[in-house]
Amino acid sequence: MEHGFLIQVLLMLLIAIVAIALLRRIGLPAILAYLLTGVVSGPSGFHWFTQQQMQSVAELGVVLLMFTLGLEFSVPRLWAMRRTVFGLGSAQVIVTTVLTMLVALACGLNGIESLVIGAAIALSSTAIVLKLLNEQGWLRRRHGELSVSVLLFQDLAVVPLLILLPLLGQNDEPLMLAAIALALLKGILAFFLLMALGKWALPRLFDEVARSRSNELFVLSTLVVALVTGAFTQWLGLSMALGAFMAGMLLGESQYRRQLEADIRPFRDLLMGLFFISIGMMLDFALVMQFWWQILLILLAVVVGKALIVHGLLRLVGEPFRIAISTALSLAQVGEFSFVVLALAVSYGLLSNQLSTMLVMVAVLSMSIAPWLVRHSVDIAKWLLGIRQSGHVDEVVPIITEDHDLVVILGYGRVGQTIARFLKTEAVPYLVLDLDPTRVSEARRAGEPIYFGDVCKRAILKQVGIKHAKMIVITFCETRSLEEALPLCKQLAPDAKILVRTRDDSELDMLQKAGANQVIPETLEGSLMLVSQVLHQCGVPLARILKRLESERRNHYQFLHGFFSGTETDFTLESLHAVLLHRGADAVGKQVADIDWELLRVELRAIRRSGAEVEHPAQDWVFRAGDILLIVGKPRRLEKAEAKLLHG
């Protein structure tokens, strides 16, 4: 019997591994894989386990999740973002909850069921949205900051829900305001007791643990703190997750925060996986097939409704249309804490199995489409904005009078605007094209010579009179747009100098072949500016510094390639490698010209002999024993070149 149980556990874990691997391949979150595992191994599938068998272990996953969530909460950070967190965040949660409750009441559900459903629908997925915003590099953008603020308040809103749900489950006595007040009083009491304990005892405890230099003791102490505080709040009649959250929040300000988070993450991820597997076991596919059209209808209502609510609130406080749409689409799904709310509601008898199954399925489907919505939120917003403002944006650019000193700036972001300011100061005529309607409208009102238009379209470039331009500056870095715009500019303005801004020089040769007269890689230029300041402070004459910088630019930043690799080696980049020629080395006695460097596909950068370094030695240089050769190339080519130089 025990062996059979172990085999069932192993099979369930195997299904989880396969499901995670497959869903990650198609860009879906791991949560869906755990839910699928629960469906397969639960009552709707092989019936290896029941939801009740998994519940006690799975609840620990929620406890550890709330502990790590508490670690992320910083009181100064919350205070700095208080307007958007507590203003926009609270408005989104309250409005969504109330509207969902009204719809649920209209459908014949009672007040408690409506409140639970409204709270579950109001929450969005912190894990999915933050991960995708980080991958896209949008966390610092306005719509990313607004999304994070709303998610922070939603996570905070889970705390009163954890207090309220056990009270709602007390069906044997009427739910009175006094009971809620007592629970809140207990929560405040628990917070102050844990605050006192956290400020006095926890730092000393972890100081002692850290001095022991035992990783096992640190991990064990972290788990014990999370579970003991959870047990304390449960003893007060509240939930374990609430105590764990408070403990995490207290330790979030300590110097051990990162270590605590790293230590507890494996246990949290494993137990949260079991929690979502237990949620999947709640799914009854017979009910899903029976109510499939209702589920799809609710899904559509949830996604569209949440998006409209967030968009409406943001427009109400004056956010631009594009920002409001991007934020709304990013928050349109149902979150992982919704599963926590639904699971607790079922365990307290607040929701029927049929209703919880439908809502879990809606949550699963909304999280399935969330990655696509978040990744394309900006594109959808631009598309909708183009339709909305098609009558307001001047897409037809007037023909510019012939001016042979004209500078055309393509892209009016931060770089484009900086260039324009300096050109204006020097009274150099310029004209700008940009595809952001809001930015164009703002700049036009300020009197800037800017027009709305796609720089990848020949007609637009002709209308601005690009053939008369003395110089064309392309300030955006999107590779696909560059590949389209650059040949057009070269074809329509063959005599103009074309300057292109890029992030690095990975496509420098390609861009120059496409027609760019000069490519400015901002990361390398930043390095050169820092070098120039260092040399200047060291007393090197300014003329010599400028000459050296210009030499680097003329030689395609050759000196800025090839560096000694560290632990994290990128095998796609060139590295600098030192080869010591011992007495029996094959290269000793040979000249530089005797080595076929092109066949080896590496470059001989310099030779060090007797403490002196000779850059780019002559072809008749004869190698001696003790010479150190500095060669540049891809790591695998360097290995072959070293073997050739030493062993022939």
Automatic annotation (TrEMBL):
Coiled-coil regions listed in the entry: none
Q: Where in the cell is it found?
A: Membrane
Spans through the membrane: 6-23, 30-50, 56-73, 85-106, 112-134, 146-169, 175-197, 217-250, 270-288, 295-317, 323-348, 355-374
Keywords, alphabetical = Antiport, Ion transport, Membrane, Potassium, Potassium transport, Transmembrane, Transmembrane helix, Transport
Q: Does the keyword Manganese apply?
A: no
Bilayer topology:
Multi-pass membrane protein
Domain called RCK N-terminal: residue spans: 404-521
Domain (RCK C-terminal): give its ranges.
Answer: 564-647
Family, according to the entry, reads as follows:
Belongs to the monovalent cation:proton antiporter 2 (CPA2) transporter (TC 2.A.37) family.
NCBIfam families given for it?
Answer: 2a37
Protein name (Swiss-Prot/TrEMBL): Monovalent cation:proton antiporter-2 (CPA2) family protein
